[in-house]
Amino acid sequence: MIKSIVAIVFLLVLGGWYLSFLASRLDALHHRVETSWAHLDALLQRRAAIALEIAHSKAVDAATSLVLTAAAYQAREANIVERSDAEIALSQSLKLILADEVSLPSGIEGELLIALSAITEKIAVGITIHTEAVQSAHHLRSKSLFKIFKLAGHAPLPMRYSFEDDIL
Predict the structure, then answer these.
(1) Residues 124 and 47 sit within 8 Å (Cβ to Cβ)
(2) Which burial class, exposed, middle or buried, applies to 58 when counting CB atoms under 10 A from its CB (0-12, 13-18, 19+)?
(3) pTM > 0.90: yes or no
(4) Residue 102 CB-density burial (10 A; 0-12 exposed, 13-18 middle, 19+ buried)
(5) Residue 28: which of 164, 20, 80 has the closest Cα?
């Protein structure tokens, strides 16, 4: 009788530890999603700043400058709901500049285009990391143990944004 009680208590403690381990793992994934988004957001803000510098350079015509400035400000100030559309608009505006890259003179504008190219590569890596973190969290949360025992708590389901597929 005592052996069976000890065995049941041991199994309950082991099960509780396992559930705690799974919840900690999910929490770590949620933290990874948040930090990858914060890093990606910082890169996107830097891209908008570079776009503003390009828009205010003398090598860009007035109409392109106006479009690029509007898109950059919209991307910098957009709330989370409008963020995807704003980033897509900025990407399309920057494609106008990159299409005319041959006609731009070297010097400061050339340095800005190099900085834009470098930040675009970093954004592509940041998007990959963020997407992978979101997929991992979705995969873990889809398991039945997480649903039955509500191991995610009240944490919102991580999400991807549509601009992540459309970035330069």
Answers:
(1) no
(2) exposed
(3) no
(4) exposed
(5) 20
